[in-house]
Amino acid sequence: MCGIVGYIGFRRADQVIISALKRLEYRGYDSWGVAVKHGNSLEIIKRVGAIGDVENYSLAEGNVGIGHTRWATHGKPSEINAHPHTDCNNQIAVVHNGIISNFQSLKEELESRGHKFSSETDTEVIAHLIEEEYRGDLKEAVMKAVERLRGSYAIVVMHAETEELVAARYKSPLVIGVGDGEWFIASDVPAVLDYTNRVIYLEDGDVAKLWNDGFTIWNNGKEVERRVETVPWSIEDAEKGGYEHFMLKEIHENPRVVEETLLEYLEDDIKIDSRIFAGISDILFVACGTSFHACLVGKYLIEGLTGIPVRVEYASEFNYSNPPLSRTLVVGITQSGETADTLEAMRKAKKLGMRVLAITNVLGSTATRVADHVIYTRAGPEIGVAATKTFIAQLIVLYLIAAKISSLPPTEIEELLEELRNIPQKIRQILDREDEISSISNTFAGYENMMYVGRGIGYPVALEGALKLKEISYIHAEGYPAGELKHGPFALLGEKTPVVACVVRDKTYESMLGNIKEIKARESPVIAVADEDDEEIEKFVDYVIRTPSTIPLLTPLTYSVALQLFAYHIARIRGCEIDKPRNLAKSVTVE
Ligand code: F6R
């Protein structure tokens, strides 16, 4: 995820900014850049790759500057696409986090008035908009420019001729660091902690101006007061945003990830290129691990909404199969874009003449170069080894694909999309109930075996819940279709083997209740994950993890977040190394 730093004060801005950017390296980035004001001009450097030693870089002397670490979203990682971006005359420089969803139409409008663009980024439109509005007052120009922006942004802007920084925030964080006679602005607290622990968190709609003597904040054109808070964390704590582990932080990022992925692909229409799916006879998903579970959800969605036949194969097994040659679209899902088995499966499909689509979280990754088409998830870098927010982002893309190519009446699809827009808020409600989930985790942290069961769309949710638990807590956990238990796994049931039942209120409901009765008859404790409107369920089970009600088709989103928290708290109670589980790697680049 991108990082922002700005500085105004008495030190050399280049050194402060580069060392502060290094404090944001843990977030992941592929390129970076810095702008410093020197006399009445801006000196800018941009580089691809890691920053390395701060001493290696020296810009012209100056006490005002901005910097950015970029994690590519619009346009490949390159010096041209790295921030800061400037206007036509190199007088205004901008760094930006977030996504400007209407950048294409703004760009066309600006081009028609003679603006020349040098990058592929959405950010560059901001510099040109500010240039058009600038009449000698940077803050006024920024206020006018941001009115035109749709999407999310945290921006910091500087002008070659003025000693000031202007920042604006909407749905993407920004914090002012308050020093003695110096001021910082950053996307994240760790960037400023070497210099000050006094910070002000900006709110949505805030515009701030920082100059040598202080700062002022406006919202809706009116001056506002914001509280100065003292950060009690060390830098290491702050990197995790105050959370004990990256995994927990990433689970808490789920609502924002859903919002960002929807912002990217859902406006009045679904912004996915329908040519990817033109003329296909069927779809074959290939993936590993959590991404494989996303594919299984995708099968339910696409078959249910479109009638197009869908197969799902483990990428590592596809390499031994002989798929029939047809007009199959092969979809490789891989958050890292580097999983060797998935890449091999995609390459094999290409050799067989099949069209290949990659769904990945990493721009420029190998999967994007192997595939004919790419759809990006917008989860930002994931540091915890266990996939959480990237899984939820994969599901969002699959809902949008299914809706895009659906053969259902438009009103039904509109209902689905409407409810999809409510999901971030529903996930926030689950996160608000974390204590309840943690107390159920407490009851089950001492067991050594667990089963997870589901039916229909609840089945891949059960598989993913079991995978999360086993990889971070080392409890042996199996996911099963609930109807399969009696064909073998029943032998394992008993009071030492709790069962997590993913109960969806659709056509599978009655059968699930029947399965739960069978499980209870064998004395396994049962924890249900269920919709909060389900009043029946508590009569059948020992514990219920409740999630805000939604339509059955969307329960993988709510139930999976609840099960991520359940697994996380069990692992925490057991004292496991949650972010780096034994024997596992974030990117599995060997077959
Ligand atoms: C589980 C997990 C792994 C990955 C798998 C595929 O939490 O993270 O199972 O899902 O290694 O990785 P990607 O999606 O990068 O291909």
Topology:
Elements: E1 3-8, H1 13-22, E2 31-38, E3 41-48, E4 64-70, E5 85-86, E6 92-97, H2 103-112, H3 124-133, H4 138-146, E7 153-159, E8 164-170, E9 175-178, E10 183-186, E11 198-201, E12 206-211, E13 214-219, E14 222-224, E15 229-230, H5 235-239, H6 246-252, H7 254-265, E16 282-287, H8 289-306, E17 310-314, H9 315-318, E18 328-334, H10 340-351, E19 355-360, H11 366-370, E20 373-376, H12 389-404, H13 410-432, H14 434-444, E21 449-454, H15 458-473, E22 476-481, E23 499-502, H16 509-521, E24 526-531, E25 543-547, H17 555-573
Parallel strand pairs: 16-17, 16-18, 18-19, 19-20, 21-22, 21-23, 23-24, 24-25
Antiparallel strand pairs: 1-4, 1-10, 2-3, 2-4, 5-6, 6-7, 7-8, 8-12, 9-10, 9-11, 11-15, 12-13, 13-14
Helix pairs in contact: 3-4, 7-12, 7-13, 8-12, 8-15, 13-17, 14-17, 15-17
The site of fructose -6-phosphate has 14 residues, from helix 8 and helix 15.
Describe the structure.
- It is a single chain.
- By secondary structure, the protein is of the alpha/beta class.
- The chain has three domains: 3-237, Aminohydrolase, N-terminal nucleophile (Ntn) domain (Glutamine Phosphoribosylpyrophosphate, subunit 1, domain 1, 4-Layer Sandwich); 242-421, Rossmann fold (3-Layer(aba) Sandwich); 427-580, Rossmann fold.
- Helix content is 34%, strand content 23%.
- It has 17 helices and 25 strands.
- An eight-stranded antiparallel sheet has the order 3-2-4-1-10-9-11-15, with helices on one face. Strands 5-6-7-8-12-13-14 form a seven-stranded antiparallel sheet, with helices on one face.
- A hairpin with a 5-residue loop joins strand 5 (85-86) and strand 6.
- Helix 3 (124-133) packs across helix 4 (138-146) and helix 8 (289-306) packs antiparallel against helix 15 (458-473).
- The longest helix is centred in the C-terminal third of the chain and has 23 residues, at 410-432.
- The mean pLDDT is 94.
